[in-house]
Design brief:
The chain is of the alpha+beta class. It is built from eleven helices and ten strands. The strands form three sheets. Strands 4-3-2-1-5 form a five-stranded antiparallel beta sheet. The protein has a three-stranded antiparallel beta sheet with strand order 6-8-7, covered by helices on one side. Strands 9-10 form a two-stranded parallel sheet. It is found in: Membrane.
Length: 407
């Protein structure tokens, strides 16, 4: 087939014999490129007619995405094949061949990047069809595919540019001299590219070990934030108020942070109530049970009410209830607070926290409040003077009857 193709081009070159030589050669090369374009269009139309809803649709979309780089590479191949019979000067043929070689290498790398993106997007679309958006396996695959795709794009780009540059003789000699002095060169390049390499390897490690995933809910700098995007060098975090944190990807390997959805999206929410000691715990516990069991945000797994602590003024009630996600847990806790506060205010006002003041009369009976109900019984304190301790006789001979500081 190659011989027939060259024969056709040679005959075409003779047809343009009445034109100047360089013009006839350029027209012949243009004809070769046009033949490649027509062949590419014909072949593309055949592929686009493949039937099918799943595999056929994927083949058609893949063909449409690869259409441009494939056509350029095909044109390069046809023109490169026609160069020996073009009749151009040797120096021009050499320069054109080298240009076509560089263009072919670049288009090959571009086609590899496009193919990687198409395959990864097809895989992400397939796993995104699942109904459970909080599936750990789903978010794991999304993170790994996107991280590995960006790493592959970077590596393919570096290899493509390096391969195209190595086609130039001066660059090739420079590369060989660098390999000859690899010790000093690797040290200089390593120091210069340290931030890039650190983030690149950190991204690969995150893709493998999964400390964070796409749409994970983490706590950073005191803010709730969702992992919106993971690139090869940084992570975009979406805060609840639509702000964005741009964090270097190495941060998640060198610092501690909270990940609320690492193994599961479900969380146990905690609500604290501060009530008076007269609060009826049975009624409060029963009302809390009714509130939680009637809440649609409760997942039906964990619920408990306990007196967790007490102080001189109030006792602390801890309410725990589980939900399917962090946001549902937040809304569930807010609902519990609203309803239990209304219950305490309307039906159990004695449970509301209060301040207690006690007015103590002096030893002489003066200084007390007029209302006897507000006056506590007088306290038998030691007389003025130094207090040597319990059981001891003060200097004035009167034995103290209690413990306390001297008046």
């Amino acid at each position: 087939m190659k011989n027939e193709f060259l024969t056709v081009l040679t005959d075409l070159r003779h047809l343009f014999g009445w034109l100047p030589g360089p013009v006839a050669s350029i027209l012949m090369l243009c004809a070769a490129g046009l033949m490649a374009e027509l062949f590419s269009r014909f072949f593309t139309k055949l592929i686009l007619r493949i039937p099918g809803q799943k595999r056929g649709a994927f083949i058609r979309s893949f063909t449409m995405a690869m259409q441009r780089p494939a056509r350029i590479m095909l044109v390069v191949l046809f023109v490169g094949t026609a160069l020996p019979v073009s009749g151009l000067p040797y120096e021009m043929i050499q320069a054109t061949t080298h240009t076509l070689l560089v263009l072919f290498v670049l288009m090959l790398g571009y086609a590899a990047i496009v193919a990687t993106r198409i395959l990864s997007e097809a895989y992400l679309v397939r796993i995104n069809d699942k109904n459970d958006k909080d599936d750990i396996l789903l978010r794991t695959h999304m993170t790994q595919v996107r991280m590995l795709r960006r790493t592959a794009d970077l590596l393919i780009g570096l290899v493509t540019v390096g391969a195209s540059l190595m086609t130039f003789e001066p660059v090739r000699q420079y590369g060989l001299s660098l390999f000859a002095s690899a010790g000093a060169a690797s040290l200089v390049v390593g120091l210069a590219a340290r931030p890039l390499l650190t983030n690149l390897f950190a991204g690969m490690q995150i893709a493998m070990t999964q400390p964070i995933r796409m749409e994970d809910l983490i706590i950073i700098n005191g803010d709730w934030a969702w992992v919106e995007e993971i690139t090869s060098t940084y992570v975009v975090l979406r805060v609840w108020d639509w702000r964005r944190h741009i964090v270097p990807i190495s941060y998640f390997l060198e610092n501690t942070f909270q990940n609320w959805t690492h193994n599961s999206a479900a969380l146990i929410g905690v609500v604290f109530l501060y009530v008076d000691f007269h609060a009826p715990m049975d009624r409060i516990r029963e009302r809390l049970r009714e509130i939680v069991h009637a809440a649609p945000l409760w997942d039906g797994k964990v619920f408990d009410v306990q007196v967790a602590d007490c102080s001189a003024q109030v006792m602390t009630i801890r309410v725990i209830a589980s939900a399917r996600s962090a946001m549902q847990s937040w809304d569930l806790r807010c609902e519990i607070r609203e309803q239990i506060i209304a219950f305490l205010r309307d039906e159990c006002p004695e449970a509301l926290p209060r301040e207690r003041l006690s007015y103590v009369a002096s030893v002489s009976g003066r200084g007390g409040m007029p209302d006897p109900g507000m006056i506590s019984p007088p306290i038998d304190r030691p007389p003025p003077g130094s207090y040597p301790g319990p059981g001891a006789v003060p200097a004035n001979g009167t034995q103290g009857q209690g413990h306390g500081a001297s008046q």
